[in-house]
Amino acid sequence: EGKGLGQRFLRHIERTRLLIHLVDLDPANGRDPVEDYRTIHDELEAYSKELSRRPQIVAANKAELPGTEERRRALEQFCAAEGVPFHAVSAITGLGLSALVQDAGDRLLSGLSETASPDVIESPASGVPASSFEC
What we know:
single chain; 5 helices; alpha/beta; Rossmann fold; 11% strand
């Protein structure tokens, strides 16, 4: 409680079908990535049991930094025990991002029922065709 998610944000994410937790592995910040994930998950659960049971992925960022191996391994083992998919990623180098995007896309598509139609953006508000963007 009181960790900063806020009721407005929690109401906003109720519309999501998949939650991706971006967890910082940087040892210089002095935080425990497992505890950071637990804090957010506990706050989600306190707000809504249904929301806390939505499909989730943990993306452990800054995996390229030296000294993150032990923290990454601890978070990966925790996620495996909890049944939460885990990806070590780096926003700087691109490490693991393709696999994360593929996994998220696969999970979203597999969660769609045959009668549901996905939200498709043919052309973003900027007028640039969506097909011109690469992931």
